[in-house]
């Protein structure tokens, strides 16, 4: 990791601040003024220096970049800033390729009556392509949501923000601070072991949101989120009533999707009965 020199980046403009860092839009003056996204992250220091968990995450990002997958945002550089002795922290700057909008903004800017089904199909295909790439390298994103999916001006999807991403072992039981509430799978809400299926659940919620132009399950708490997930089934609602104009959605789904969902609900019901 290089120390970030003053001439490396030009004037920076705040883009967004989140729980896992602050992102700036900046010019890389050492690369013909190319616009980049500069993510500032404060890393707590231990007696041995930078924690192994942080080094693993940086290694993960660098590993992903070597493949240059079209649907994964590129990590261009990693630099370190000042060391904050009082807070025992080190400031890191992750330099990513810059994309002006995320999927949430893209959807908001779409005029009525919304995205055409063929456009939704193209977006979803790219999202799933990126997720499949991550899973094939034993990586779970764990925080998929429209705000973490970037869309270029030419319509190319880029999965971003790997602050929660982890290499996985089967049947993991990890922290519940995973996936924004509206996109959490039932097993995460119930504190059960999980694996790559949490990303697939989030993809399904995002796909429905592209049709609805509103979140599929917008719970206000973990309990409310579970209620919103299972209430449609108890009321006998169909995909057509929950997701209008989703005929094409059904055509894309695998034929055994209903049986898979039923098995998942039965498994969750057994877990609820035990608790």
From TrEMBL:
Residues annotated as domain Protein kinase? 9-275
This protein's superkingdom? Eukaryota
Keyword Kinase (UniProt): yes
Q: What keywords tag this UniProt record? A: ATP-binding, Kinase, Nucleotide-binding, Serine/threonine-protein kinase, Transferase
**GO molecular function terms noted in the UniProt entry:** ATP binding; cyclin binding; cyclin-dependent protein serine/threonine kinase activity
Q: Name one GO biological process term.
A: G1/S transition of mitotic cell cycle
Q: Does the keyword Nucleotide-binding apply?
A: yes
Class of the enzyme per the UniProt entry, highest EC level: transferase
- What reaction does this catalyse? L-seryl-[protein] + ATP = O-phospho-L-seryl-[protein] + ADP + H(+); L-threonyl-[protein] + ATP = O-phospho-L-threonyl-[protein] + ADP + H(+)
InterPro entries associated with the record: CDK, Kinase-like_dom_sf, Prot_kinase_dom, Ser/Thr_kinase_AS
Q: What is its EC number?
A: 2.7.11.22
Provide GO CC annotations from the record: cyclin-dependent protein kinase holoenzyme complex; cytoplasm; nucleus
Would you identify the family this protein belongs to, as annotated?
Answer: Belongs to the protein kinase superfamily. CMGC Ser/Thr protein kinase family. CDC2/CDKX subfamily.
Do you know which PANTHER family this protein is assigned to?
CELL DIVISION PROTEIN KINASE, CYCLIN-DEPENDENT KINASE 4, ISOFORM A
Task: State what protein this is by name.
Answer: cyclin-dependent kinase
């Amino acid at each position: 990791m290089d120390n970030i020199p003053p001439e490396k980046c030009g004037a920076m403009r705040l883009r967004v601040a989140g729980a896992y860092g602050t992102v700036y839009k900046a010019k890389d003056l050492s690369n013909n003024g190319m616009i980049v996204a500069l993510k500032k992250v404060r890393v707590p220091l231990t007696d041995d220096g930078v924690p192994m968990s942080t080094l693993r995450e940086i290694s993960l990002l660098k590993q992903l970049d070597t493949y240059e997958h079209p649907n994964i945002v590129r990590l261009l550089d990693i630099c370190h800033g000042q060391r904050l002795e009082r807070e025992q922290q080190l400031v890191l700057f992750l330099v990513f390729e810059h994309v002006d909008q995320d999927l949430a903004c893209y959807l908001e800017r779409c005029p009525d009556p919304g995205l055409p089904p063929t456009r939704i199909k193209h977006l979803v295909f790219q999202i799933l392509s990126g997720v499949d790439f991550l899973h094939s390298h034993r990586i779970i994103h764990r925080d998929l949501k429209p705000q973490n999916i970037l869309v270029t001006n030419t319509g190319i999807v880029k999965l971003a923000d790997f602050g929660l991403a982890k290499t996985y072992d089967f049947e993991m039981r990890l922290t519940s601070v995973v996936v924004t509430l509206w996109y959490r799978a039932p097993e995460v809400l119930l504190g059960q072991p999980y694996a790559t299926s949490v990303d697939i659940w989030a993809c399904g919620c995002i796909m429905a949101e592209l049709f609805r132009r509103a979140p599929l399950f917008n719970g206000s708490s973990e309990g409310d989120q579970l209620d919103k997930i299972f209430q449609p089934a108890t009321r006998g609602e169909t995909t057509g009533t929950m997701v209008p104009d989703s005929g094409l959605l059904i055509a894309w789904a695998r034929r055994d999707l209903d049986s898979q969902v039923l098995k998942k609900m039965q498994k969750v019901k057994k877990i609820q009965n035990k608790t």
